[in-house]
Design goal:
This protein is an alpha/beta fold and 411 residues long. The chain has helices at residues 10-20, 29-42, 61-75, 106-120, 135-138, 142-150, 155-158, 162-170, 176-192, 204-216, 253-262, 267-275, 280-291, 296-311, 314-327, 349-355, 362-370, and strands spanning 25-27, 47-52, 79-84, 129-133, 196-200, 223-227, 339-343, 347-348, 374-376, 379-380, 387-388, 391-397, 401-408.
Length: 411
């Protein structure tokens, strides 16, 4: 471990501000400032690690919150390691869960991993990204190595993890193999000699295990940076395919544009901070303009176009805006429409119209659908039995009645 103290120059302070943008927590900030200063003085880039388990084949905007931070670190000249957890996926990460998550098969893992990096490369610079699979060092450990690794961490420390503690107190089973997950994720940091590891706030315990194991192996401990979990289009739950409130980075431009336009004006600013590549100064100036009376729709259009252009093209972003405007041309959305939340997804369209206050009765709701007077996100609804999953929708009845309706999962 280096004992040399390097000066924290204005350039280092500037880099630190970039790294801290939008982050939830940076541990330990003073240590990381020294790592940055040392890297600057010696010309040796930091090793920045992000591990993703290929539990599903697609990446959504929630995943890109951390990927965007990785890209910023790349642009500062550091080495980014995109780690695909093909070994840890076979264990299953119980973070934030109240039950054991079924492990994936090797076939599922390989199938999902094929598309992961291709999608991540839409954010990261492939030429400056080191791709690794943790089976490289986890498989060779064998039973003897696994026992030796397990001897370096105590059950008491493992039980400090919040979800393990809650499950133990309530009698929910904890399988022994679940203890292996944070242990193996921590060992990844040892194998890669990571200087900094990134993850969502739900990964904090696992990231700290890596820090402790590095000390056990005589390495300089990594710093950890956690990023907030991005709420999905419903504005309530974290973005997730299982909640059907996600925006996939591989979605068609019009779909991506429309979903971004459906988020609330309040949530829009969190999306700007975590997803936009605009400077914080630009975002603050835009927010001042909105507070001074400019239409919030203008800001949301700018955000939607930026994101669509990033994952498709500027031409696709322009076309998506034109298509979006065309869908609402017959009845332009007012600047200020009521926002309603309805629990218990899926919700039938007739019930949704009643509870949103857009009709007075079920009969009126049915009549409006039959007559073609109901639109959801600009699309005319003809199915009276339509069930709407969790998500946020702009609902229109006739030419003048609008509501932004958020349907949430059952409590």
């Amino acid at each position: 471990m280096s004992t040399t103290k390097y000066p924290i120059t204005p350039a280092i302070e500037s880099n630190l501000r970039i790294v801290e943008r939008g982050c939830e927590e940076l541990l330990v900030k003073a240590e990381f400032a020294q790592k940055l200063a040392r890297s600057h003085a010696t010309g040796v880039p930091l090793r920045v690690k992000l591990g993703l388990d290929p539990t599903a084949p697609d990446i959504h905007l929630g995943h890109t919150v951390v990927l965007n931070k990785m890209r910023q670190l790349q642009d500062l000249g550091h080495t980014v390691i995109f780690l695909i957890g093909d070994f840890t996926s076979m264990i299953g990460d119980p973070s934030g869960r109240n039950s054991t998550r079924p492990p994936l098969t090797r076939e599922q893992i390989e199938s999902n991993a094929k598309t992961y990096y291709a999608q991540a490369s839409l954010v990261l610079d492939p030429a400056r990204t080191e791709i690794r699979y943790n089976s490289e060092w986890c498989d060779p450990l064998g039973a003897r190595g696994m026992i030796q690794l397990a001897s370096r961490y105590t059950v008491a420390r493992m039980m400090e993890r919040d979800d393990f503690t809650k499950r133990f107190k309530t009698g929910v089973p904890i399988s022994v193999h679940e203890f292996l997950y944070p242990l193996m994720q921590g060992y990844d940091s040892v194998a890669l000699k990571a200087d900094l590891e990134l993850g969502g706030t739900d990964q904090k315990f696992n990231l700290l295990v890596g820090r402790e194991l590095q000390k056990e192996y005589g390495q300089e401990p990594q710093c950890i940076l956690t990023m907030p979990l991005l709420e999905g289009t419903d504005g309530v739950e974290k973005m997730s395919k299982s909640k059907n409130n996600y925006i996939g980075i591989g979605e068609a431009p019009e779909s991506m544009f429309g979903k971004i336009m459906s988020i609330s004006d309040t949530l829009m600013w969190k999306y700007f901070e975590l997803l936009s590549f605009r400077s914080l100064e630009d975002i603050a100036a835009l927010r001042q303009e909105i507070d001074a009376g400019r239409n919030p729709r203008d800001a949301k259009v700018a955000l939607a176009q930026e994101i669509v252009a990033r994952f498709h093209s500027q031409q696709a972003a322009e076309a998506a805006l034109a298509a979006f405007d065309a869908r609402f041309r017959d009845g332009a959305i007012p600047d200020d429409i009521p926002e309603v939340t309805i629990a218990g997804a899926p919700v039938g369209v007739l019930k949704l119209l009643r509870e949103a206050g857009l009709v007075a009765s079920g009969a009126e709701a049915q009549r409006n659908v039959e007559q073609g007077g109901v639109r959801i996100d600009g699309d005319r609804i003809e199915d009276k039995a339509l069930q709407l999953p969790a998500g946020t929708y702009v609902v229109q009845v006739g030419k003048r009645k609008f509501a932004r309706v958020t349907v949430t999962a059952p409590a």
